[in-house]
Amino acid sequence: MIALLAHLALTPIERDALPIPRYLDEVTVSAAIAAVPWSSCPGGAAQVVSVRLRVDPVGRVLVDDLPQQPCVVGLLRAISLGPHDEELAQIALDLPITPTQVGPPLAVRLLSRPVDPLFLWTPLALSVSERRALLMALGLQSDGWAPTVMPAAPHEGPAGE
Amino acid sequence: MTLILFLFACGVKAPPREPLGPPQRYRADLVIDVTTEAVDASGAPVAALAPLGAFSQRYQLDLSLAFVRDYRDGSEGLLLRFEGGSARAEAEGAAPITPGLVGRSLELRRFPDGEVLNIGLLQHAAGGDRHGELFDLLAPVLSPRPPDLPEVGATELRTARWPAFLDRQRGWWSTLEARWTLLATERIGPDRAWKLSYEGRWKVDGGDRSQGAPIEVTGEGPARGTVWLGQADHTLIRHELDWTRAIAITYPSAPQGPVVVRQRQQTRGTVERLP
After folding, report:
1. Structural domain boundaries enclosing A129
2. Distance from CA of B62 to the nearest CA of A (A)
């Protein structure tokens, strides 16, 4: 009995499990990147840039071609993924980045899965326009939906700032 | 004795398999025909849903299947990734496009004998114009689990069942109840393979209970195919398939009364392991 209990206690639920990332994708995004003002980065106005994201096999999201701008640090918020405008993701930089560290790759952490207002979890194969028509007919979606870009919260700057 | 058992329990475990080792690569060449209609309670077409139409598309997809994790129950997680490929409407002169599925991945959880336990991350392939909803069948197609058939000509009924759930309240079960027959043993390149055929019914049953009025999902259709399985490791070498499901989804609380969306999906073609 002791041995059995010891065995159960020592055996993890998923032995040698490798966390599956929620995304294993390569996508190009148009992102509103809120530059975080701090002493070495005057101004810090939000700007829109295009970046390419990859997710590596252990779940880290990599930004390959972040523009070489020292103020492009801090947070990525409410990113419209790829050509499919119905998807939103919330992605935040995982590491505090200094101007000298800007450049590929940066590790970012995925905070939540996309909120997809046009998402229907069914086996139906529908195009975006068909899905939109169906949702409107069902009273679940009004017309004129567009992705929204949420501003970064001021207190979510890099650590130490 | 207790001490011995304790030491046994604490003993060194077998080293884990290397995650994301060399993947197996497959080429899927599939023609998918889809027709859709929406009707009200009386069976009349819903005018607002006239845009729901039909398409016939040929997908040539490069897939990879790589081990990523072990589960405690002995099952394994495999990463099924859409590495590349093209999609082309069957209409004459249509130009091929890169399907939106490319670059996306699912997790296929299965037992080593092929039994599929789950399809994870399918929501990532669904939505948009990707039509990933059509590809939940890839799990049992890539991981078939025929019965043990002792000799050529032997036949047996087997039921496979696999889920596609977003969460506890939203998803569907698929069932394939098919009669399998061992046709031959063949040499496929360097491999010895069992050649098996199957024919049966493919059923879908599920829904969405997250809404006030539950949405019901049902479906059924014929499925048949021929499978070549490697005798050495039971991995799929080639799969010729022709699967059809007629899905009906009932939305009970539409503003104008209940709406039923029907969609017939036929998927036929081959999935073949690449060297």
Report:
1. 117-144
2. 15
